[in-house]
Known about the structure:
This protein is an alpha/beta fold. Helix content is 23%, strand content 28%. Strands 1, 2, 5, 6, 7, 8 and 21 form a 7-stranded mixed beta sheet that branches. The chain has a 5-stranded parallel beta sheet with strand order 10-17-11-12-13. A 3-stranded antiparallel beta sheet has the order 14-15-16, with no helix packed on it. α5 links the parallel β12 (172-176) and β13 (198-201). It is elongated, with a radius of gyration of 21 Å.
Amino acid sequence: xxxxxxxxxxxxxxxxxxxxxxxxxxxxxxxxxxxxxxxxxxxxxxxxxxxxxxxxxxxxxxxxxxxxxxxxxxxxxxxxxxxxxxxxxxxxxxxxxxxxxxxxxxxxxxxxxxxxxxxxxxxxxxxxxxxxxxxxxxxxxxxxxxxxxxxxxxxxxxxxxxxxxxxxxxxxxxxxxxxxxxxxxxxxxxxxxxxxxxxxxxxxxxxxxxxxxxxxxxxxxxxxxxxxxxxxxxxxxxxxxxxxxxxxxxxxxxxxxxxxxxxxxxxxxxxxxxxxxxxxxxxxxxxxxxxxxxxxxxxxxxxxxxxxxx
Length: 310
């Protein structure tokens, strides 16, 4: 175990596909990374069941298993792990300081890969059935719902995008929206409204998701009358947005709508020596493979920066 007061070459905050890929690259570059992986290590993939679109796994792989494999790979090259949550960061002076509940780490460079959290409905049955008919990602899970009837919850662009995408597989997609008009941009609305496989349930909220081991239906509450009705469905796609996990970095880094801003096509943030990768930066693609790609970029950016600034 390394000395407490040693200054590390690189500290990685967050342990999803971006952080773990950064760790593999940084460790192989002999930077001896320390990863603060958080108490809920592994990121959003820990909440998914089957992952079929990650290259290299012909038969698919369970989300948690993929993260465990990546973690072991980074460990094999010498990544050190600290299973704790970061409570505070100080980027005002170098070496940078990262504090956890019981440790203080000094590092010459930082890679932030804290990810984003999908907003949930927080209704009974939703968490229990996550990965068993409840999903927050159509591009990840749509394929599993061929010839099924689905609902999409939300009224913004991402909800219209998810609903339209799901019609490739589903026989019918019902968009459930709490108001009687969509927030989505005109072009996305028109596309969804013109799609004969998409129907709309206006002025309704999902108040419960039910099913025995997998989703069988939802309870819908009418926002005008309060009346509750049963709505059978094979799957529920929650598309009410994501929140990047950036609370720690408010006032320390430049953010745009909560996401960390990076310079040009690099992973460099507004503070030299601090890099960011994955869903904490990327609100567009939000895939494990794109996060992993950015993790690789961040490690290379950090390595080159350390080389030029040692």
